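If your schedule permits, I should be very grateful for your opinion on a structural question. Please examine both parts with care and let me know of anything in them that strikes you as inconsistent. The record follows directly beneath this note:
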Amino acid sequence: MTAGGADGPGAPPEGPASTVDGWRDPANAWRDPATAWQGDGAPPRSSGPEGLVSLISDNWPRADAGLQITGGGAIAVDTDTLRTTATAFTMAEAELSAIDLRLGALQNMLLGTWHDTGEVVAAASALGTRLRETQAEATGIAEALREAAAVYEVVELDTALRAAVAAGDADAVARLDARRTDLLSRYPEAGGRAVLAAFDRGIMWPGELVRQGTQWGVGVGGTFSEPGAVWGGLVVGLGAVGGTALVGIAGTGLVSRDARLTGTAGPVTVTAVAPEGMSGTRSGVAPGAAAAGGAGQAAPTSWRPPAAVAPRSLAAAASRIPGDGAARVRVEKYTMADGSTQFALYIAGMQSSDVAGGDDPWDNESNLQLYSGQMSDSYVATQAALAAAGAEAGDAVHVVAFSQGAMIGSHLAVEGGYDVQTLVSLGSPVEADVGAGTLSVAIRHTDDPVAGLAGGGAMDGVGAPGSFVAERVYDPATAAEDATLPAHRLTAYAETAALVDASGDPRVAGVQAVFDDLGRAASVEVSEYAAVRGGG
């Protein structure tokens, strides 16, 4: 998870400051944490439980395949694309068959002049054999693609069936069940393979967290004793397995379309502050309530050309998310040429580790409340900031948010009363089942325990066509500092956002089109808001 080399336990790295998987021995010497060996030469291998834990931690399947951009859920492929590709292979097989027939006719013509064209006839015969082999391969590939599409569609249908049953929609249940029955009649093995695919996804999605957690536990425990390495690896590794399994089974990381935060929160005082990094700032009257039940106030608001304000990339949008300053929410109000308005909303992640309700609403208390489906002071503050910036029910809103802010944005999308057209979440502990009217872009690190609280996300993709999930391992190495969650830092997610921008994936064009549209606005106002608990 932290940057650094890893030469592995086969031979000690060079130099007194070397590390093994990023872990430094307190004596500043290379150390195999699984055997407590240190010094020169090849380290011994234990044949007992210590060696077993080391073997598991060293050889657990790595998920470091670089940036992966998918449609999300258990289905990482588009079934329509599979079937279209299968049709292309079938067409290619037909074309190869036609060529083979013409080649056969040519061979027959040349047989009458065998003495003069023997070598040509032999070459044509060999080519004909290869053509028929290629035809068979094309037919096999086409059938395999259709079977794979059937498996993935059964997974999708099973997910939709569960949702329809839960909603009591008898018509949808009958329609989906008929489709599933038809698929299984043509592809009998698809049902069993679909179950295995869903099971594999449910088991393997936290694999990188388990691997790194086990190695981290071995490394930390190994600094104390050989048994400590064993117990460290077991406790952290099994804890990661059990915790992620519990999250996945309980579904606590999913925000359904009918989710509603319970309870009450506030009062919270929201205060306009000067937008960071914006020149030409002057005071203006921000409409709406500055606090829950309060009155409007003079708001430092920046006026600049829309094209200069609108973000031009995901990385640029991520950089707008408030961080170390006073602001917790940033709102950009774009007035379009037709007089309509759109709002870009940027929401901070947790800023305080308080758990008992300190002054800052962006704390662990709000984290726990939002994750458990309760109203939080940070959610109330975000609503107040939107109102102060002039947003009204039904207005178009584009959300870019990190961590706790992403939980707030998720609930705004499903229950906030706004037309949330875009939801970009970075390191979110939840995934919202937003409807077809919301473009959902989720950026996650598979070695981020906070993002792991989403339980791998929904079994099916969410959001409008073109929605996607971008994942990568932030750092495959392990080190003592992993306890500070470096894979969950906003700066780390900004780096990944830049990789998504440069990926060339066609789905990125969808969110880029949102930014381009904002840049064509007639005017824009930028406001940022701080928040404290209390009525002011």
Notes: The CA atoms of residues 10 and 42 lie 7 Å apart. Residues 254-533 form one domain.
